[in-house]
Amino acid sequence: MTDTHVYAPTGDAGFGDYVALLKPRVMSLVVFTALVGLLVAPVGVHPFVGMAAILFIALGAGASGALNMWWDADIDAVMRRTRNRPVPAGKVSPGEALGFGLALSGISVVMLALATNLFAAGLLAFTIFFYAVVYSMWLKRLTPQNIVIGGAAGAFPPMIGWAVATGGVSVESVLMFAIIFMWTPPHFWALALFMKEDYHKAGVPMLTVTHGRKATRAHILIYTILLMPVAVGAGFTAIGGVFYTAVAVVLNLMFLAGAIRIWRRDEAVAEADGYAVEKKVFRFSLYYLFLHFGAFLGQAVLASYGLGGW
C-alpha cells in the first residue's frame, strides 16, 4: 500500500461510513451462499445457532472488506467506481479502517468457534486471511491472474456454512465452492472490459490491462465453458435433483450465450455502444449466482417433501 497518509479524516464519519467499510453488497452474497451451505447440509442446526453462525460469518466478510479498503486506499482514490469509499474520501482514516477490520476479524472467528465448531471458525479465519493478505496485499498488484486465484476467498462461504452444520467438508461443499470459484473470473473480467481505464490508472494488472480486451473476451468464454460442467454436475449429488439441474442447465446456457456474444464483439462496436453487451452480461452474472444457490435451496425444500430427486 502507498500514500495512505494523504487520506486525512474529516472528522464527519457517520454510521453509514463504517457500514460501507464492510462492503454490504459483497456481504449480501457471502451471507446468502453461506446460508445455503448451512441449510442444504445433511445435518440440522438449531435455528438460534444457525442465526448466530450467519451473523459471525457476515462480520468476518465485513472484516475482510474493511481490511481491503485499508490496504487499497491508494487504488480506490483513482478509480471512479471506488473513489467515494470512506477511506479515500477522507471519512475514515486508514488506521481506523485497519483497527475496525482487525477487531471484527477477531470477534467473528472467536464467536463462530464458540457458537459452532473450531473447523468452521478456522475456515472463516483462513478466508479473511486469504482475501486480505493473499489477494489484496499480494496477488492484486502482482499478476493478471489475481482474480482467478483470489476468487477463492469469495468461494469459501458455502463451505463455512456446510462446516457449521457438519464440522467438515464433502464433495457437495467443494462443488459449491467450485461454482463460485469458476464464476468469479468471467464475472469480474466482464466488469473489467468496461472499466479498463480505471484499472490502468490505478496500476492494477487486470487481464484487460496486461493482455488487452480481445484476450480477456476469449478468457471469459473459456472460463464460462469450464464452469458449466461444474455447475450442472452438482445436480447429480446429494444436494441436487431434477429442479436444481433444470435451473442450472438454463442458467448456464444463458451465461454461455452471453459469453459467446462478448467473445464475438468487435472492439470498435463495443466502445461505440458504451459496452452495452458487456454490462448486460455482468449484471446477469450476479443473478446467475444468486439463482444457482436459490435453486440449491429450492431443491432442499422439495427434498424435504420427498420430491424432486432422481
TrEMBL record:
Name the UniProt key words of this record, in alphabetical order. Cell membrane, Heme biosynthesis, Membrane, Transferase, Transmembrane, Transmembrane helix
Q: What's the protein called, per UniProt?
A: Protoheme IX farnesyltransferase
**Function comment:** Converts heme B (protoheme IX) to heme O by substitution of the vinyl group on carbon 2 of heme B porphyrin ring with a hydroxyethyl farnesyl side group.
Q: Which reaction does it catalyse?
A: heme b + (2E,6E)-farnesyl diphosphate + H2O = Fe(II)-heme o + diphosphate
Q: What else is known?
A: Carbon 2 of the heme B porphyrin ring is defined according to the Fischer nomenclature.
- The domain of life is Bacteria
In the UniProt record, the gene name given for this protein reads ctaB
Q: Name one Pfam family in it.
A: UbiA
Q: In which pathway does it act?
A: Porphyrin-containing compound metabolism; heme O biosynthesis; heme O from protoheme: step 1/1
Q: Which family does it belong to?
A: Belongs to the UbiA prenyltransferase family. Protoheme IX farnesyltransferase subfamily.
**Membrane-traversing stretches:** 26-45, 51-71, 92-112, 118-135, 147-168, 174-195, 216-236, 242-263, 284-307
Q: What is the protein's species of origin?
A: Fertoeibacter niger
Keyword Lipoprotein included in the entry's annotation? no
Enzyme Commission number(s): 2.5.1.141
Q: Name one GO cellular component term.
A: plasma membrane
